[in-house]
Every structure is written in C-alpha cells, then in structure tokens.
Amino acid sequence: MREYLLTLCVTVAVTYLLTGPVRKFAIAAGAMPEIRARDVHREPTPRLGGIAMFGGLCAGLLVADHLQNLNGVFELSNEPRALLSGAALIWLVGVLDDKFEIDALIKLGAQMISAGVMVMQGLTILFLPIPFVGTVSLTQWQGNLLTVALVVITINAVNFVDGLDGLAAGMVCIAAAAFFMYSYRIWYGYGIEAAAPATLFAAILMGMCLGFLPHNMHPARIFMGDSGSMLIGLVLAAAAISITGQVDPDALALWAGGERNATHAMLPVFIPLLLPLTIIALPVADLVLAIVRRTWNGQSPFAADRGHLHHRLLEIGHSHSRAVLIMYFWSALIAFGAVAYSVNSTSMWMVLVIAGLSGIGLVLLLLPRFSPRAPRWAEGLVPPRYRHAERAAEEAVREAVGQEPEPVRVLAGGVSGVNGATAVGPRSRFPDRRKAGSRG
C-alpha cells in the first residue's frame, strides 16, 4: 500500500506542478476557443490541461517501474506498455483537437485505433465470469470487439460529462478510488496477481485527477479539454478491461469447491467484473440520453447541446458548485455502493444505508424549489437571495445603477443614512430619490 501511495503522490505532484506552465503555454498557443452557446463559463479559458495529466501518467508509471513491489507488474505483464501506447495516441489527437477542432468522426476513429493498439499488445478481454453459468471464454474477435467497444464508450462518456468546472475530473477520481479499493481487495484479499495492473492504473488515475482539480475547480483557470477527458476515459477503461478480462475465476474456486459453485457462492465478487461501467454510471446514462435526444430531434449524435444532466441541474436552480457536488454525490453513491455490495450483499444495514443516502440525494435535488428567507434583523448578514422580496429588489436597483449599498443606522426618529437624512419608509434608502423630491 505504501508504494501505491508513493506513486499516487508523485502523480499528483507532477500533474499539479505542470498545470501552471501548461496554462501559460495554452494561452501563448491560442488554445482559448470563443464562448459557445452551450458553454457555462463566461470568459475564454485555456484548454490543453491534458498535457499536464499525461505528464502525471508518465511520471506515475516511471516511478512504479522502479519500486520493488510494483516492478513485477512491468516484468510479468505488458499491460502498462499497452496503456502508455494507447494513451499517447489518444492524447496526441486530443491536443490537436483542443487547438484545431478536429471533426468528431476523426476523433471516433482515433479512439478505435487507440483501443486497437492496446488490444495488439495484450490488453484485451479473454473471458467473462457470468453468474450461475461460470467462465465464458471469448474468441479472439469477440474479445477484441468487446474491448474496443468498452474503450470507445468509456472515453465518450467521460467526454460528454466534461461540461462544468471540476466535474469530469472529480467524477473520474471518485470512480478510480472505488475501483482501486475493489481491485486492491481482489489482489491482496484473494492473492490474484492478475489484478495488480488494474490496481496500479486506478492509483495513477486518481493522482492525475487530484493534481488537476485545484486548477479546474470553479472558477476554472484551465480546462482539461479533449486531450484530458479522452485520456482519463481511456485509462479508466484500461483498468476495467484489465481486471475483467485477465482475472481468472478459477483462482476463486479454491474456496468454493469448483468453478460453477464458486460463481454461485461468490456472486457479489463478480458484480464489478460483469458491470465495470457501474463506476461511471452517470456519464454513461448521460451519453445514452444525449444520443437518444439528438437522434429523436433529427440531429447528429455528435451535435453539441445544453441537454446534459449538469445543464438540467443548472436550469432547475442549482448553482454551479452545488450542481457539481450533487453529481459527485451520486457518482460516489453508485461507485462505492457497488463495491460495498460486492463485499457483502446479504447485509440489511448496507441496503438501508444506500437507500437512506439515495433519499438524501433526492432531497438535495429538490432544494432549489425552496426559497428560505432570513429574518429582517439578520438580512445584513446573508446574501441578497435570502432576503425578503422588497429588500432584495432594492439591492437589485442599487446594483443596476452602480451604487454601493448605503449603511443604515437606526435612530430615535427613524432610519438614518450616512448623509444625515432621516425617513421611515424604504424610499429613504435611495439618496437620489430624496434629492429629486421637495425638501420643504
């Protein structure tokens, strides 16, 4: 565990330190596109944050290769090299897209080629453990096709959800943390060394996201762009493919007396293996809904719009930060809920906790429908949106005419402003109105 933490810290540090120079480079290179209709931000923001994230990936793999316990991952498996090859290709295409806006079909082809590069080097699905059936071996073309499909779906799911500051990096970080816990348990809990590459990939992916998040939280100083979103999507897919297609369920049969019986008895362990996309359920759901919505409206599935889940959260009244936190909450609930269920699916308290947290999430979604108001004596201590309608309207007028709010003192004869004028009604709080009226 200490070597994983060291790899994680190095990846975080390298990504964080590189993001600042990358931002200056993006500004100098002109990688700051104009504001589009679907964008939420109001000022041009540089992209190319994926350059720093790719640097963190390379640093994490380099450090892990020189650690005693993790060095075996590189000696016994070709998967780290396969990941680096596919990641370099998709990252290069993403950098070109951030600068020159490549066509969507070209990017789709690049995603398929990147997945094919990893398949050619051994990172592919060989068999699937299916509950109540056992291990199903896949032919070469079936495994390759399933691997390419999983990589393309995951990359586009992460790319689609990258619409708010810090959203994609945070959600992928949560998914990577949950996946790290699961794969680490498979490796050390059951002694299956085939899960070691997936554990390493998940740790590095967490470091890439954590190092970039401080620069990307609202208001973001830099965006990851397609060079970052496609990169972290590919790394997440590689981790899922590694543990799904390389972990042999026969190793678990030692505790249950046969392959078929092991599959029956250890069904919760196979849930994340069979459904690796549960860790990115929200991005995948957003992807499917976007394709259906655009196709139904007669548009291209790759046409951009403002119908994503995060856009809908903003439309119903959530602030930018609250919308991001709500998406974080649901991602964590689904990802860690799946991991907890894989550990023990028969515990009733676990089901009750998940149900209770789901109820809390539904309440959070409805919060914008309520308009809490502070008492009048505390209105000066809260933001304008929590004040009564009359006072909020007056503050809005002041902001419209460019005036600073006037301090108010309560005197024996009424309300007095700083200029000494005294009145009782709310009109006295507007100096221009008092000057325009008759004084005697």
How does this model look, in words?
By secondary structure, this protein is mainly alpha-helical. Helix content is 63%, strand content 4%. It has helices spanning 2-29, 50-65, 71-76, 79-100, 104-120, 140-161, 167-190, 196-216, 225-246, 259-265, 267-274, 281-296, 309-315, 320-343, 348-366, 389-401, 431-436; strands at 127-130, 134-137, 409-411, 414-416, 422-423. The strands form two sheets. The protein has a three-stranded antiparallel beta sheet, with no helix packed on it. A two-stranded antiparallel ribbon has the order 1-2. α14 (320-343) packs antiparallel against α15. The longest helix has 28 residues, at 2-29. It is globular, with a radius of gyration of 27 Å. Mean pLDDT is 75; it is low at 253-260, 263-269 and 404-440.
Q: Could you tell me how far the N terminus lies from the C terminus, measured between alpha carbons in angstroms?
A: 82 Å
Average pLDDT, rounded to a whole number, is 75
Find the count of extended strands (DSSP E, 2+ residues). 5
Biggest sheet descriptor: 3 strands, antiparallel
Tally the helices: 17
The rough form would be described as: globular
Helix percent band? 55-70%
The unreliable regions are 253-260, 263-269, 404-440
- CA gyration radius, whole angstroms: 27 Å
Strand content: under 5%
Order of helices and strands: HHHHHEEHHHHHHHHHHHEEEH
